[in-house]
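Narrative of activities, Objective 1.

The group set out to show that a structural description can be obtained from nothing but a protein's sequence at a throughput compatible with the screening campaign. Below is one input-output pair from the validation batch, recorded exactly as produced.
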Amino acid sequence: MHIGFDTVNLKGQYFTSAISKNDIICRGQVLAEFDIDGIKKAGYSVTTPVVISNSKKTGRVLPGHDFKAGEEIDFSQELMCVDPRVEEEKPGKDSGTEVDKDIEKEKDPV
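Output recorded for this entry:
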């Protein structure tokens, strides 16, 4: 997560992380706190891009219920939701419908 543009130049000043690498996070959990006024006074933008770089692993990323593109959001608004990826069933030897099994029996000579 990167808050603002070029704020890495602040070397952590005005930022406090509430989580660590590899933590499992929950909906509504605080991830970080930052001093918006301090960042702005230091000459940096607090515009925060949101990029999901592993959506092939996590599933679809959907907009939150009250999210409207181009509008500012409040910290309590749901920005997005990640639709959990469901593992697809892979057909095995014993899978298939009864009709499929009957067709297979017809193909195999007894």
